[in-house]
Design goal:
Structural class: alpha+beta
Largest sheet: 2 strands, antiparallel
Radius of gyration: 15 Å
Number of domains: 1
Order of helices and strands: EEHH
Number of strands: 2
Number of helices: 2
Strand content: 5-15%
Helix content: 25-40%
Distance between the termini: 25 Å
């Protein structure tokens, strides 16, 4: 079904391992909840910039990262 207001809400690029789609409010909440659990093993830093070590306090802080309102 096509979204009545903005058709890009329905756009998806899908591969066997990945799906890219617009981040709506429900998905932003799901991503925020996942982010509060951590992105990687805390004993290992896979990134040059330690952006995953930022102190976040709850889902609300994570929602700000994803631009949710």
């Amino acid at each position: 079904m096509t979204h009545p207001v903005w058709p890009l809400f329905d756009l998806r690029v899908t591969t066997p391992r990945l799906e890219l789609r617009y981040v709506d409010d429900d998905l932003a909440l799901e991503l925020a909840e996942l982010a509060t659990r951590g992105v990687h093993d805390p004993e290992y830093m896979p990134f040059v910039v330690e952006w995953t070590d930022i102190e976040l306090h709850g889902v609300e802080a994570c929602l700000d990262l994803f631009g949710a309102r």
